[in-house]
Amino acid sequence: MYRTNCASRGAELWRWINDGAHIYVCGDANRMAKDVEHTLLEVIAEYGAMDAEAADEFLSELRVERRYQRDVY
């Protein structure tokens, strides 16, 4: 799923995350990966009814669980 689709299909993405989906981000570290992470945080905050700090903690937990991984360069 492209970053632009993440925002427009946020409810679906949130449902996938809650159902145990693994998220892999691969590509440009300078722009794309940062944009994807920012969009993920927005989706988590909006559809998970969290503030920015809670969304960041949630994403950190996904990292610990190895459900959010990045291969960026």
TrEMBL record:
PANTHER family noted in UniProt: NADPH OXIDOREDUCTASE A, NITRIC OXIDE SYNTHASE-RELATED
UniProt GO molecular function: flavin adenine dinucleotide binding; FMN binding; sulfite reductase (NADPH) activity
A GO cellular component annotation in the UniProt record: cytosol
Key words of the record: Flavoprotein, FMN, Oxidoreductase
Entry annotated with the keyword Cytoplasm: no
Needed co-factor(s): FMN
EC number(s) given by UniProt: 1.8.1.2
Domain of life of the organism encoding this protein: Bacteria
Family matches, as Gene3D superfamilies: Nucleotide-binding domain of ferredoxin-NADP reductase (FNR) module
Lineage, broadest ranks: Bacteria, Pseudomonadati, Pseudomonadota, Gammaproteobacteria, Enterobacterales
Name used for this protein in its record: Sulfite reductase subunit alpha
InterPro entries listed in its UniProt record: FNR_nucleotide-bd (IPR039261)
